[in-house]
Write a structure and sequence with these properties.
This protein has 666 residues and is α/β, with parallel strands linked by helices. The chain has 4 domains: 173 residues, no CATH class; 191 residues, no CATH class; 194 residues, P-loop containing nucleotide triphosphate hydrolases (Rossmann fold, 3-Layer(aba) Sandwich), CATH 3.40.50; 59 residues, no CATH class. The protein contains 27 helices and 19 strands. The strands form 6 sheets. A 6-stranded mixed beta sheet has the order 1-2-3-4-5-6. A 5-stranded parallel beta sheet has the order 14-15-18-13-19, with helices on one face. It has a two-stranded antiparallel sheet with strand order 7-10. The chain is globular.
């Protein structure tokens, strides 16, 4: 039996064949048969639903990283898993995902060490994983131990060691958080700047979670391949690479004229294969790829979904939650606060495609009666439709000279579903509805609530008097009472990164792609945006947008479209650009992006020439000898550093060679 893999399906029940009271290092099985089976090539198939019913503290539906981290922790804390951990292979089936944990100790007898891999569906499709599929996976692992076996409809990532490591005695799990996006981009043979540019040009699904292999010149994805495989150089005389934000009032250097001796940060050879496995979550037209955003928005969607889909009780014809549901949303100006809430609602119920949300800017109100008129109109809404969404923008603005002066007027509607009607001099009921409070003064929940930064009790003496006064003012303005009535909040991240921090390229790429395709409609019938690549590069790498995403949109709207394209001559004057970015820095970034497009690495050029010579010789073409001689001359030019001329010739050959020479074999 040791020579053949097998699968034991425990997805419907967990065997009570171990002794939980004998905790020690690991509970032991009572039945000797189970103890004997541990040494064989056996895979144990588990179901997340069943494990949760048994009492395992494993989260589902927030993020793949959270589910894997919980499962890894329970391998050391949950008795049934502590016993099953001794088997060679553990498989946890969780909807569209599969977690594979391998016990390396079972192979080589070394100290206990686990390694693992997560298989997941990028589109979050429900995919069953029957024992037969796991059996095939085990056979592939046994036959090709150095390869990553594929699974239909799924991509995979390796689970890092720190996630699977035994927790410290005083911690339930590793304090480090796993980010699949960062891990994938760090391990990829291409630079994340190239990935971001490609996403802007062609969209997320055309770039991520697919197998990349060098296409033929006439392939529709050949231009994307060229974008992805551009080599990133760093001039040591620069203050920092383009992916790092410079200090305020600092600017990058103009690109070097010769890059022959510059170090390469990231690059790839033409024939290397790779896959960018990244979980993506979409809420209608809203796409996110960062773990914190996925978890935050899924949490709010789950909250919305439970409230919107709630039905009246059959016994008393009443709702279990008749009062309004209240959440807050924070972010920089123009970050898309109302757009985010609207798309979450649309992803739950098609009713909101037409109804949308009702927006009111509290900063424009002059007296409390203005707010009363909003509640009066709301009380007239139908109770048969899904609950309306009321968006109170800049709820944290001042009322006259009183900071946060509006908070106290929201308390009764939030808590009791009632408001005071001055005209009729009585309290009136509000229908079931969703209140969304969008910050205008404060850009994050932590910034809104000063208590979020309170030190630990042993450092309470270090709190300044001014900080104590700030908290006292917040309490006086009913801030804690307001927060106690909230059921959740959203922090929309900034497009800018702090000095010395890596820029949020993929975040900017998703935002930029949405603007170009959604609001401006600058794309062709294949979905490729018609914007010069050097402009895309500058928009992605510029250090700061003065007004967040609004500045990004403003720059694009300031560019006249020429023959359907936004090109460098379309850019506004430096004086106009300065309203939204540092214009001088923007143009330097543009020149740096253009220089990257004009230069290929020595390895890429050598590889291209080798392929050219091979095709010429194999094809028996009459001009083969001339091509070989020409290629030898080009190699000398490569060694002399004349990359720009070589690049021009190679670009022309890409167009000509398919017509006169056979394609190289795959």
């Amino acid at each position: 039996m040791k020579d053949k893999p097998a699968v034991i399906d425990l997805a419907t029940t967990v065997p009570a064949v171990f002794e939980p009271e004998k905790m020690g290092d690991c509970p032991r099985f009572v039945d000797d048969v189970w103890n004997d089976l541990r040494v064989y090539e056996i895979g144990i198939r588990l179901s997340l639903d069943q494990m949760q019913k048994q009492g395992a503290a494993i989260t589902r539906g927030l993020s793949w990283e959270q589910t894997v981290e919980d499962f890894a922790a329970e391998l050391y804390l949950f008795p049934p898993l502590m016993a099953l951990r001794e088997f060679r292979h553990l498989f946890l089936c969780c909807g569209s995902g599969l977690v594979h944990i391998e016990n390396v100790k079972a192979v080589c007898g070394a100290s206990a060490r686990l390694k693992g891999r997560l298989y997941f569906s990028p589109e979050q499709k429900e995919i069953d994983t029957p024992p037969k599929s796991i059996f095939k996976l085990l056979k592939r692992l046994r036959r090709y131990p150095d390869r990553v076996p594929p699974m239909n409809g799924r991509v995979s990532v390796e689970i890092p060691d720190f996630v699977l490591a035994r927790p410290m005695p005083n911690q339930p799990r590793s304090p480090r958080r796993w980010h699949i996006l960062n891990q994938t981009l760090e391990d990829a043979p291409v630079h994340r700047i190239n990935v971001a540019v490609a996403i802007v040009r062609a969209d997320l699904e055309k770039v991520l979670n697919r197998k990349w292999k060098k296409p033929q010149v006439n392939d529709p994805d050949y231009d994307l391949w060229q974008t992805l495989t551009r080599v990133e150089f760093w001039n040591p005389h620069d203050r920092a690479p383009d992916f790092v934000t410079l200090p305020a009032r600092s600017r990058p250097a103009m690109p070097a004229q010769s890059r022959r001796d510059l170090p390469v940060i990231k690059g790839t050879h033409d024939h290397q294969e790779f896959r960018l496995a990244v979980p993506i979550e979409n809420f209608k037209a809203l796409y996110v790829a960062e773990r914190e955003q996925i978890e935050n928005l899924r949490d709010i969607k789950r909250l919305f979904n439970a409230y919107i889909s709630e039905k009246r009780d059959d016994d008393n014809d009443k709702f279990r939650h008749p009062k309004p549901l209240s959440i807050a949303v924070f972010g920089p100006p123009g970050a898309g606060k109302s757009f985010t809430v609207t798309e979450i609602a649309k992803s739950i119920n098609a009713y909101y495609n037409k109804a949308g949300i009702s927006e009111f800017n509290v900063a424009q109100f002059r007296k409390p009666e203005d707010l009363t008129s909003v509640f009066r109109e709301l009380s007239k809404s139908s109770t048969s439709s899904p609950p309306p969404i009321i968006f109170f923008d800049e709820f944290d603005s001042a009322l006259g000279a009183e900071e946060l002066g509006w908070l106290k007027y929201f308390l009764a509607p939030m808590q009791d579903g009632k408001y005071y009607d001055e005209e009729q001099n009585k309290l009136k009921d509000l229908p079931r509805s969703i209140f969304v409070f969008a910050g205008g003064v404060h850009t994050s929940f932590e910034n809104f609530d000063p208590r979020s930064e309170l030190p630990s009790p042993d450092l309470a003496h270090a709190v300044s008097e001014e900080y104590r006064k700030q908290i006292a003012r917040f309490e006086l303005r009913k801030g804690p009472d307001f927060i106690s009535r909230l059921r959740g909040y959203i922090n929309i991240p900034d497009a800018n990164a702090g000095p010395g921090r890596s820029k949020h390229f993929l975040r900017r790429a998703i935002q930029l792609r949405g603007l170009l395709k959604g609001k401006l409609g600058i794309d062709d019938d294949k979905g490729r945006v018609k914007v010069a690549e050097e402009i895309i590069y500058a928009l992605l790498t510029v250090d700061r947008y003065r007004h967040g995403v609004r500045s990004m949109e403003a720059i694009l709207r300031m560019c006249p479209v020429n023959a359907g394209w936004i090109t460098v001559p379309s850019l506004p004057s430096r004086a106009q650009l300065n309203m939204h970015v540092d214009a001088e820095e923007f143009f330097i970034r543009l020149y740096r992006g253009r220089a990257r497009m004009e230069v290929r690495s020595d390895a890429q050029l050598e590889c291209k020439l080798a392929d050219l010579v091979k095709r010429a010789k194999d094809g028996g073409n009459p001009i083969a000898k001339n091509i070989v001689d020409l290629a030898e001359g080009w190699k000398e030019q490569i060694r002399s550093g004349d990359h720009y001329r070589i690049n021009e010739l190679l670009t022309e050959l890409d167009k000509i060679l398919p017509k006169i020479l056979p394609a190289s074999p795959a």
